[in-house]
Amino acid sequence: MAECGEEEGTIDDNINWTTLSSSFKGNKVKKKNLEPGKAYTFRYRSRDRLGWNLFSPSSKPSWTLQSGQNRLENGPQIHAVETGAVMLGWQCVEGASSYELQISDAAYPVWQTVSTNIQHPAVKKKGLDANTKYIFRVRPLFAHEDSASWAFSPPSSEISPPILSQLLSSMLPVNLINNQNQAVSQGALAGKVVAIYFSAHWCGPCRKFTPQLATFYNQMKAARRPFEVVFVSCDGDAGSMMSYFSEMPWLAVPFDDDKREQIQSDYQVSGIPRLMVVGPGGAIVAENAVGMPLSEQLVTHWASGGTTAAPQKAAPPPAGGCCGGGKCG
């Protein structure tokens, strides 16, 4: 069994390393009795039958709290990401009048305040660069107490806003709609597994499959999985599309947008329902997932770039237009 050693050092012009132990057996340790309000950095190395290996790179500085200070145990959590933006959330602190959120480039930690007047323990930060990794920290503020008694939380995990794949950015219109007919930017799809759902109300197999897909979609939302659906209607008029779309919890291409028919032509949609799945990087990972046993594991597989073939037992789509030219049902 390899043995581990760990050292600490205070942050000065020259780091003075102090060995904590050379006999750790695991990979986790709690260091006590550090000075309040001081920054420390750590490094470690392992030992095998040939001797000690080289030390790891030193950790980023970690500050101990001042005596009497409090802080949130965990840093802000990443709830959702999209092109140029991230949704953050954190633990609610009783009695807080607002929260102060700070941001930093993860590679060069220099903290800047985003706002000191965030009223709820959640916020959407926009205007982020997709080529930069960011970290965030937060602390509560109090109207009638000394806010200095609360230090900032530990930093969040690093986050870099995703970029919408070239395939989806060219396939879809700039603005999609939700079932309230409100515009939603295609950028909301960045970093997600996106299922393009070709369907129509007049198609019986579609009406049977849609509730099944909606149940799975809601499960993935509850599990915070990066999964989205975009409805491409094969209905003959806007009224029929919107009536059918009102039953769906996802997004859609507007009926009167030229892209709606262009997508059907480009991807040779000759039968519905069809669920074409596109991975975050822009690869088509499933030509038609209708009939597949949809699961969280499958979404994770797709998110990592894995592909799946249509199940052999699935019947081929009928010839002609959507769902056999409108003759099914």
UniProtKB/TrEMBL annotation:
Its Enzyme Commission number(s) read 1.8.1.8
Q: Keywords, A to Z?
A: NAD, Oxidoreductase, Repeat
* Reactions listed under catalytic activity: [protein]-dithiol + NAD(+) = [protein]-disulfide + NADH + H(+); [protein]-dithiol + NADP(+) = [protein]-disulfide + NADPH + H(+)
Identify the stretch(es) annotated as Disordered: 308-329
Q: The organism sits in which domain of life?
A: Eukaryota
Locate the Fibronectin type-III domain: which residues? Answer: 72-163
Known PROSITE patterns for this protein?
FN3 (PS50853), THIOREDOXIN_2 (PS51352)
Q: What class of enzyme is it?
A: oxidoreductase
User: What is a single molecular function from GO for this protein?
Assistant: protein-disulfide reductase [NAD(P)H] activity
User: Keyword Cytoplasm on this protein?
Assistant: no
> What range(s) does the Thioredoxin domain occupy?
143-300
UniProt key word Hydrolase = no
A Pfam match is: Thioredoxin_8
Do you know which CDD domains this protein is assigned to?
A: FN3, TryX_like_family
The family annotation for this protein states:
Belongs to the nucleoredoxin family.
| Protein known as | protein-disulfide reductase
Originating organism: Heterosigma akashiwo (Chromophytic alga)
